[in-house]
Amino acid sequence: MVAALDRRYPPAWAEEWDRVGLVLGEPAAPVRRVACVVDVVPETVAEALAAGADMIVAHHPLLLRGVSSVAATTYKGRIVHRLIKADVALYVAHTNADVADPGVSDALAARFGLTGLRPLHPPRPGSPADGPGRGIGRIGELPTPLTLAELARHAAAVLPVTAWGVRAAGDPGRMVRTLAVSGGSGDSFLAEATAAGVDAFLTADLRHHPAGEHLAAGGPALLDAAHWATERPWLDDLAAQLRDELGVETVVSDLDTDPWTVHAAAPRPDDKEPRP
Ligand SMILES: [Zn+2]
């Protein structure tokens, strides 16, 4: 299992700051059922244990920064204890799965039916991840051009459902033909989306100042989706690969781990009932 995952998502392809690969478990232990999740949190762990999984493959690292204790009295230590006691292994494929071809953003691009895919942020030439088709994010053409407002509504319909939904920045009537997508936090790729000449860029975790300055400089329109919703589509690809190549059973978590649970849009002026 570990060797097969390492072949598809070589740990050397991960960013330097990232922590990927086998986190918990015996490499030689047999694996019959794998749970695929974006986040390793108590809820997804409970779901994996209830499904009888022997292994969890997660996108986000459980232990990204150094820890000096995994005592069961700590949040993450509790998770580590639960997994070890249940004899469930944990494997992480993060930025090495983002950069792979196919990778996390290919599954996101597929939700929009994008064609002619190319990477948004190719790896540095000569770096371990350098190779044809590889890179973070994807650029492609929509099957039918849509206005930004239409595309935002379409995105909310084709992406996994979250309270956050999708918000867009820029002229709502702007026509979008070429779309860049990047699963997860895509703040740092705004300049590349502009340089690529796309009409719009869909990602997650966009912020006031970078977004505002990007638009003021004439950059592509922006769509800000829920972080979880942009990476959840990849779990289907991952599960299909594990089933087809390794013959293991898979369960894909649809548990929304996005932290935002309420979204209230202000009523539009014409929606307001006259007060008595
Ligand atoms: Zn992410």
From TrEMBL:
Pfam families, per database record: DUF34_NIF3
Domain of life the protein comes from: Bacteria
Ranges that cross the membrane: none
SUPFAM superfamilies: NIF3 (NGG1p interacting factor 3)-like (SSF102705)
Keyword entries, A-Z: Metal-binding
Keyword Protease: no
InterPro entries, per database record: DUF34/NIF3, DUF34/NIF3_sf
Subunit structure: Homohexamer.
Family, similarity comment: Belongs to the GTP cyclohydrolase I type 2/NIF3 family.
UniProt xrefs under NCBIfam families: YbgI_SA1388
Name listed for the protein in its UniProt record: GTP cyclohydrolase 1 type 2 homolog
Species: Micromonospora fulviviridis
